[in-house]
# Entry
Amino acid sequence: MSAKLGDTEVGRIGLGTNRLSHTPEHVEYVRQAVAAGVNHIDTAYLYVGGESETTIGEALHPIPEGVVVATKGGYRPGEGKPDVLRGQIEESLRRLQTDTIELYYLHRVDPDTPLEQSLEVIAEAREQGKIRHVGISEVGIDQIERARAVVPIVAVQNHYNLGERGHEGVIDHCTAEGIFFVPYFPLRADPPRAVYEIAERHGATPEQITLAWMLRRSPVVLPIPGTLSLAHLKDNLAAEQIELSDEEFAALR
# Structure
């Protein structure tokens, strides 16, 4: 089960790295994650004060062909200003030890800066070959369409899980438009009782059933559960093999 990002086939389940600090153990963990089959790693300029990007850069330099490292910039108010965002892009390139970031998101719409101004900086970096694909995070449909008027948008990263369903309309829009929907915190919710019953039936964990449900929700959904455990990571990847029945899917819908 995979999806196509530009020329790259990516697995439907990626790896979130918002707790990835810069230690020899975590450098090795990133290498083992890729060896285990992860080829979509999500990070951000601000994760662990930049250590997440630095760790990934050290672990994967040069980033292997077929591995998508996505990062984000412009999270805090004021950081969507052109000069600030331009600096964050350059710093992310340095930390990741790469000339081109495969997927770069505007991490938040800056309340102090028009969305278009922030995205023009990212579009400029794309034209210079520093960014290949562009995404946007925590947005509604109107903002997605405003963004697309500035630069092609291939991915939207919003908060979504079994307990947080506020972006159902955004998923439907992304599905219709062929835009990836990347749910962050996909497992950070108390699962309904039905999850446990379905998990028992499949000989799976509740987390695996939750991920299988997300994959079934739409072919454009690419969850990025965060973990620092190789065992949990392999469990997450195994969720791609679970096929829920129509009744099971409906029970969680």
Summary: The two ends are 22 Å apart (CA to CA). The chain has a mean pLDDT of 97. The chain has one domain: 2-190+218-242. The longest strand covers residues 131-137.
